[in-house]
Amino acid sequence: MPLLIRDGEIVTADQRYHADIYIENETITAIGKDLHVPAGTEVVSAAGKLIFPGFIDPHVHIYLPFMGTFAKDTYETASVAALVGGTTTSIEMCCPSRNDDPLDSYYLWKQQAAGRSASDYAFHMAVTRFDESTEAQLREIVADGTASFKIFLSYKNFFGVDDGEMYQTLRLAKELGVIVTAHCENAELVSRLQQRLLSEGKTGPEWHEPSRPETVEAEGTTRFATFLETTGATGYVVHLSCEPALKAAVAAKARGVKISVESVLPHFLLDKTYAEREGVEGMKFVMSPPLRDQRNQAALWDALKSGEIDTVGTDHCPFDLEQKLMGKDAFTGIPNGMPGIEERVNLIYTYGVKRGGLDLHRFVDALSTRAAKLFGLYPRKGTIAVGGDADLVVYDPGYRGALSSATHLANNDYCAFDGFEIEGRPSVVTVRGKIQVRDGVFVGEQGIGQFLRRKPNLEADHAG
Ligand code: URP
Ligand code: ZN
Ligand code: ZN
Fold first, then answer.
1. Where are the domains of the chain?
2. pLDDT class for 3, splitting at 50, 70, 90?
3. pLDDT given at position 464
4. Cα 48 to middle of ligand 2, angstroms
């Protein structure tokens, strides 16, 4: 059935105006004032509401075997949580371990999502080793529509690649015209510091941050930038958490390195004192890079406002408290990660736009448009335009509420932002024209989410 969203205020990365939006066959077919309503059209009133392009989370983990366990979500649970929070497209990290076959893993990850997601999705393919078979496999994966890679400079012997493997991955990415996303922490230093702290009897979650200090992340970011510069590849730093790493990325950008920066929700709002709480209360907040000293938050917000931070993702990676307790005797056993897929949009809107002076267009850019452009989804996603997918968030800026572990929808037993106030939430969320959410409730259909095939969208180096 056609859908008309009437009388809303459309806000994109560069425009703000009042108009109606008419949707037919999953796409936006008209935008204008007082549009004619053909018989049989469903009408949604958006008077007093903002209409944003569907938000894109460029960094999530849904199916993830990691640290001796599995992240808790499934596509059914994560996609519903995402949609209720206004995220209509997620890009999941497909993360085989070094011992897994990359191609088999890629199809396994796709299988986890196929027919089970309520929202659209894509993948970044993690390259966790580079041997004789890797190149052909990666070519097949890119040809299948997964046109971005992921490397880990951390997690030694599990996901981590060495410098030679990073070089080979970047060379291939440059040849294929795909972007490489990177977790930038020095694996060797983390491993040495972990061993030292444990040998000194420092076993609690409060030691997680000192085992991966800011310098370790700055080194990883600098090294990644140097490798990008040398190979000419295009890169994207994931979950950048601190000022020294930010300075490294900004300096690289300034000298012409093709590098973009993502920071993730927890680093804007939570600091390392959360992980210093006693026992499992602290373990809830163990992620990597770790929650940092609070002084970094102002630097991240400023960089988000100025555009030095390109995107805001979540690094959604939920575990239950029982899983967190796997690290009760040693912080190195605490599964790294926390949920956030549902909370990102409302929290950045509240603490950024409403309370922090973040420009509304930059908000849309950082949480939707820029990711669409960087990862080959634009203009199908990431904006509101005739011909684009009708992924829309009718947003109620008058809503007032608070987040709660009792009501959050990710499939784990705590919300990392329990008690945080929100000023605004999605009122109606559509996925390709289908209403999936009304006022905090999933009212739609499971399984309609599509795998988004992306083409390499960078200048490729055919010389190889
Ligand atoms: O702590 C985190 N970030 N867990 C998920 C894996 C990763 O490094 O992104
Ligand atoms: Zn990571
Ligand atoms: Zn991650």
1. 54-374
2. very high
3. 44
4. 39
Identify the DSSP state of 155. Answer: S
Q: Is 420 left (phi over 0), alpha (psi -120 to 50) or beta?
A: beta
Ligand 1 atom 8: the closest Cα is on which residue?
A: 288
Cβ-contact 83, 55 below 8 angstroms: no
pLDDT of 387 over the 90 cut = yes
Percentage of residues in the chain with pLDDT exceeding 70?
A: 99
Nearest to 290 by CA among 304, 272, 309, 311: 272
| The dihedral formed by the CA atoms of 258, 314, 245 and 237, expressed in degrees to the nearest 10 | -20
Model-wide pTM > 0.85:
yes
Q: What span, in angstroms and rounded, lies between the C-alpha atoms of 142 and 129?
A: 17
Q: Is 315 in the pocket of ligand 1 (CB under 6 A)?
A: yes
Give the right CATH number for 54-374 from 3.40.630.30, 3.40.50.2000, 3.30.710.10, 3.20.20.140: 3.20.20.140
Question: How big is the chain, counted in residues?
Answer: 464
CB 241 within 8 A of CB 209: no
Q: pLDDT tens across 252-274, in order?
A: 999 999 999 999 999 999 999 99
Look at ligand 1, atom 9, and give the residue with the nearest C-alpha.
315
